Amino acid sequence: MKLDRAAILTIVLVFGAALVMAALNQMTPPASAMHVPTYVIALAGKYLCFAMLALAVDLVWGFAGILSLGHAAFFALGGYAMGMYLMRQIGDRGVYGNPNLPDFMVFLGWKQLPWYWHGFEWFGFAMLMVVLVPGVLAAVFGWLAFRSRVTGVYLSIITQALTYALLLAFFRNDMGFGGNNGMTDFKAILGFNIQADSTRSALLVISALFLCGQFLLARFVVGSRFGKILIAVRDTESRTRFLGYRPESYKLVVWVLSAVMAGIGGALYVPQVGIINPSEFAPGNSIEAVIWVAVGGRGTLVGAILGAILVNFGKTWFTSVLPELWLYALGAMFILVTLFLPRGVVGLFRRRSRLEPEPEVPAASAAQEVTG
Q1: Any alpha helices (H) in 93-147, and if so which ranges?
Q2: N or C: which end of the chain has fewer CB within 10 A?
Q3: Which is higher by pLDDT, 318 or 90?
Q4: What is the pLDDT of residues 200-214, one digit of tens each?
Q5: Would you tell me how many other CB atoms lie within 10 Å of the CB of residue 88?
Q6: Distance, CA of 255 to chain centre
Q7: pLDDT value at position 367?
Q8: How many angstroms separate the CA atoms of 167 and 171, rounded?
Q9: The whole model's pTM is what?
Q10: Eight-class DSSP state of 192
Q11: How confident is the model at residue 364 (pLDDT cuts 50, 70, 90)?
């Protein structure tokens, strides 16, 4: 896989910035002008996790033409799997001192740990669930939807309904996931104090590493023969089907891969923000992820990362100055980008610096390339 200048620059900036910030947090005194506060480390880590979600959305929307309005569900499921592991690590250090039951279960009068909580005391099992739960849900949903040839706005509405159904389910106390309060008060991860500055810095670097890994994986997928067929399916699905391919199979594979990527982002998000609750399933979160991709540049991968970081940085600043106007600003941003920057911020840079060729590949030429 050959990397162009834009891809190399993205990896260097993401991983390099994370390393520099972590080093300045750990190696400089708090009074120093060079010191990076821990809250900035936590914010940067959160942005990188959101960038993983945006990258997952861009993979299915930008290259397969699947506009998902429910990808926050996969992000949240990965977060809940990590949250369950972190809750089991609290042990008898909780408010009620129960070594087997999380505090919210003791408060609600649960007498024993539900069967689906067993195994989450082991990090390896929890990480397997981070991948498996979003992946299996995506596989079942995708198989039913794509096999039925549900496309366009109908598929978008169904994905939104999926995440809303999960939101309502996880709000219930009898589900055993903390109800509307969710899970919080985490103490440790792999034996390390989760509140320690060193742990926060390590999580930031790990998030950057996973983001770069997902970026390289996505580039490999879209640059391969499989990716060219995806683009053909996106542009002219009926013609691709006429050539003998089964578009539903290709869409299912990339859909499941995208869900797993989002789940990993959610798992890294939870220990850095210190909480996971049903609000992460909110359909608005999925819509925001689509806006990140549109602002950065749909179908570019680099743009997804850039858009997620830029928009969330703007959200942090704007909500501290004029919090009641943030949603209006977000809507205006989406409209302006759609009208004046249809290829996003990355498209603007490309016109000026010619960093890399346009990713668009006509369906006919893509189909000819994969058949030849």
Answers
A1: 103-108, 123-147
A2: C
A3: 90
A4: 999 999 999 999 999
A5: 20
A6: 13
A7: 41
A8: 6
A9: 0.92
A10: E
A11: very low
